[in-house]
Design a protein that fits this description.
Double Stranded RNA Binding Domain; mainly alpha; homodimer; three-stranded antiparallel β-sheet; Ribonuclease iii, N-terminal Endonuclease Domain, Chain A
């Protein structure tokens, strides 16, 4: 089964020069001797560094212990698997027949490893700046609330649930503009709730992020921010 | 006691634009509330990544397990303290009175932390390329023999011991040329053993590295390489 790289690249908001790197990153050892394990090794340390640097910058007053705890809460199997799910990496994985049958594409460890491997692949393909930006984009919400013990609901989910609770119409999202070159696009999204006045616009490096930004603004306007 | 930054920068083969970063990296928590702990946090992950990437490149056929073992053998307290000793970081440390009295500048954990902190300081001051090059320089020998269980003796030491065993005159090293700009010098060193014919030249990013390269060539010429 060939990997659908167009969809992958769209989800990643990154276009590979060397598509073989992307394929390798999503090839589990059960599928091929040439698999993603070496990339996973590199991506693991790269991710650790990118998150460490981001926390170092965002929290200038945090001491080493706080920074370490924040990083540990972000760089772990569950968090990495969550990123993989948002990027829909599981659907693009090359798995051996056994793993495929036993639902390997949903397994947390396989997903977490794929996240690390794809990060290394992007780094090798596009360099540190591109890779850092993407990882920060994917981790944005957690970077700004790294210690929230209970998994913080994203803005879109919170807005949706709030509207359901109020019994009003649900939010609608529309991409109104995409700017920038193919490898570095910016999405502009408008969020509208038919029963409420006013719409809000959000901007982001991916459709999802732009939608989150728009949802956040509506929550702010409604006085429903956390 | 002010830190002798000239000597430090010479040992590092790096000149800081922001000297405060260097001072901070060498300030132990016993000396000041503004100390090197945050830099150590950043340097720890940065070092892990730089070594991971170097091993990934140098050993294209090594699997993830081998790469992990090699990295663990290089990135640990003893190895980092060893780098600190070669760079003479201990002499530049700012320690509180108690730590100073109890010999803190020789303590392995303090030295290892200082190595991590100075790596972060160089990164923040000079960027990834400069930092990576220096860390690879400092780690060069281990990168190419990462799994040697017994601490491998460096080439200068081996040559010295060999000459002593043979009862001939000891090697003499002379810097014959320094090229490159101040922040990125290359040292050319000549090694001579009076009782033996021929001299050998070595080139390196620091005096020490050039001497090691020259000593290695003499060992090669004598058929005494490991």
């Amino acid at each position: 089964m060939p990997i659908n790289l167009d969809k992958l690249q769209q989800n990643l908001n990154y276009h590979f020069s060397d598509l073989e790197l992307a394929e390798r990153a999503l090839t589990h050892r059960s599928a091929n001797k040439l698999n993603n394990e070496r990339l996973e090794f590199l991506g693991d340390s790269l991710l650790g560094f990118i998150i460490a640097e981001a926390l170092f910058e965002i929290y200038p007053d945090a001491d080493e212990g706080e920074l370490s705890r924040m990083r540990a809460s972000m760089v772990n199997k569950a968090s990495l698997a969550e990123i993989a799910r948002e990027l829909e990496l599981g659907d693009c994985m090359q798995l051996g027949a056994g793993e495929l049958k036993s639902g390997g594409k949903h397994r947390e460890s396989i997903l977490a490893d794929a996240t690390e491997a794809i990060i290394a692949a992007i780094y090798l393909d596009g360099g540190m700046v591109a890779c850092t930006q993407l990882v920060r984009d994917w981790s944005e919400q957690k970077l700004h609330a790294p210690n929230s013990d209970q998994k913080q609901k994203d803005f879109k989910t919170r807005l949706q649930e709030l509207m359901q609770a109020k019994g009003v119409s649900l939010p609608r999202y529309e991409v109104i503009k995409i700017t920038g070159e193919a490898h570095r696009q910016t999405f502009h999204v408008e969020c509208t709730i038919a029963d409420l006045e006013g719409t809000q616009r959000g901007v982001g490096r991916s459709k999802r992020m732009a939608e989150q930004a728009a949802a956040q603004k509506i929550l702010d306007a409604l006085g429903e921010s956390p």
